[in-house]
Design goal:
Layout (H helix, E strand, L loop, with lengths): L1 E5 L4 E5 L9 H17 L2 H9 L6 H10 L18 H13 L6 H15 L2 H8 L5 E3 L20 E3 L10 E11 L6 E6 L5 E6 L5 E5 L9 E16 L1 H39 L1 E2 L2 E2 L4 H30 L4 H26 L11 H13 L4 H11 L9
Parallel strand pairs: 3-6
Antiparallel strand pairs: 1-2, 4-5, 5-9, 6-7, 7-9, 8-9, 10-11
Length: 399
Amino acid sequence: MTATKDSDTDGTRPTSAVPDLRYSDAEEQLRAVVRDLLADRSAWPAVLAGVDAGEADDAALWHTLAADLGCAGLLIDESRGGAGASYREAAVVAEETGRAAACVPYLTSAVMATTALLGAGDDELLGALAAGRLTAALAVGFAGPPPAPGARAGSWPVRVARPEDGEAPGAARLTGTVGGVAGALAADVLLVPGDGVPLRLYAVDATAAGVTRTPLVSLDATRPLADVTLDRVPGRPVATGEAAAGAVAAALTAGAGMLASELFGVAERCLGMTVTYVKERHQFARPVGSFQALKHRLADVWVAVTQARAAARYAAACLAAGDPDTPVAVALAKAACGEAAVLAAQECVQLHGGIGFTWEHPAHLLLKRAKSGSLALGTPDRHRAALAALVDLPPPPGG
């Protein structure tokens, strides 16, 4: 950050360099590889077939994306076996997983859990994640906001008890239920915030005795949720106190920022599908896209998607640079991209006419992904309220 002269006050104010929001050549190459893989292995008929069969998590596809392409280790430095990339590259992959409505735990494992472990500095788990040997999930509710990392004792749902005789020093026994955890069903390791002062973050074997993962019926079947119940399950501490609070906060911030990029991918796909369809569908011997009313509706979607792209790219750039403006950028991106995705998906269903309402068409998959993603990790209204507080704006009347 640099200090620049303010001509009005004759003082200085801190400013940061404006990031380049354009995609680099390396990012475009990464996009092409991921898009080709998802087009081949996660085309919408395959996604729909998995949803119909109740097998939303595509383990084979995730292994290819995570291990063979190295996407699980994008945020992990090379010394730990990762790619040493940044959130800019991670955002490109998030866009593509959103665009394809891919049934993979990329957001929950490669972004949220990885960010938490980077904050905790656990080299052992980070190396296993980077190699694709393990998949992890942060045990916080996906649909609603979890307690703030600095919340008082009693705010977090998992209680911590002393270890049993013969267990490793610092280990603990964890008991409690965390509702609606995304990525829990596919995870080998759960990262569980343990209630107390100071807050502690524990690594738990997801297959250990006493761990119960109960699948939930959720709006978006392409991202399964589960209630996670722990009954005196041994946990290994990976971070304590400020390090744990910072790791959880960083994971939630990065998750919201990368979810914004995913939602932008959904919105862009919906707009592209709709424009293609209205060019091909004829009525009264004319393409329906030539009708002015439809042109105006699609123009509104295009504006929203274009604004969402800028917001998502800025959030990714701030996360990559560790910019002090990151909380503002993430709140703006999550609000803008969530609403743009829902708008684009709704118009996709409507402007496809009768076929857009059928189960056999992918529009409903994208609409559900858009709506559930918009609500997850903070609704647009919640992020706007956070944004107002961050930039010292007064609350709305009656707020």
